Amino acid sequence: MVDIEQEYLTFILQGEEYGVDILCVQEIRVWSSVTELPNKPDYIKGVINLRGVIIPIIDLRLRFGQPPLNYNEQTVTIILRQQSSSMVVGIVVDGVSEVYNFTSQSIRKAPAFGSSIDSCFLKGLVSVEEKLIILLDSDSLLNENDLYRTVDSHEDSHSKLSREAPSLSSA
């Protein structure tokens, strides 16, 4: 039986290399400004108009709970499109790395972390030379419910403020 190879575009986030299915990559763009939206999580940078299509832009560093990075000439936005639906999203990454071919046999399952760590975006790990590449599950990455889900421990500031603010009737 022949193990079919699949291509992955890899990119860098805080020194780690990640990969996404290249069939989901619509295009790669240099960082450019976005239109900011009100009342959104920090990891949603805003939206862009790409040839008439409004696309949300997600800072993947912030979405994964990593510290922010000032954008520079290496910063790119990878536009991803889900093949089975019309979902399109841009992910901001530190830089694009390479394109690799991996067989399904070369992809190792990510270890179980229990319920305290959100691993919904992990597809698996691949060893290339002396490094591990973290492969992301494109279906989860392009799933609105997973991508825009807020983590319980990161309380939304509006609800926190409304609980802390004294009501006018009690003054």
Kindly describe this structure.
With 171 residues, the chain is mainly beta. 12% of the residues lie in helices and 40% in strands. It has a five-stranded mixed beta sheet. A five-stranded mixed beta sheet has the order 3-6-7-5-4. The longest helix has 8 residues, at 157-164. It is globular. The model is unreliable at 151-171 (pLDDT under 50).
Secondary structure blueprint with pairings:
Elements: E1 5-13, E2 16-21, E3 25-30, E4 44-50, E5 53-59, H1 60-63, E6 76-81, E7 88-93, E8 95-103, E9 122-128, E10 131-136, H2 138-141, H3 144-147, H4 157-164
Parallel strand pairs: 2-10, 5-7
Antiparallel strand pairs: 1-2, 1-8, 3-6, 4-5, 6-7, 9-10
In short:
The chain has helices spanning 60-63, 138-141, 144-147, 157-164; strands at 5-13, 16-21, 25-30, 44-50, 53-59, 76-81, 88-93, 95-103, 122-128, 131-136. The protein is mainly beta and 171 residues long.
Supply the key terms:
12% helix; 171 residues; mainly beta; globular; five-stranded mixed β-sheet
Give the overall form. Answer: globular
Low-confidence stretches: 151-171
What is the strand tally? 10
State the major sheet: 5 strands, mixed
Fraction of helical residues: 10-25%
Distance between the termini: 75 Å
Order of helices and strands: EEEEEHEEEEEHHH
Rg for CA atoms: 18 Å
SS element count, helices: 4
On the 0-100 scale, what is the average pLDDT?
82
Structural class: mainly beta
Q: Give the amount of beta strand, in percent.
A: 35-45%
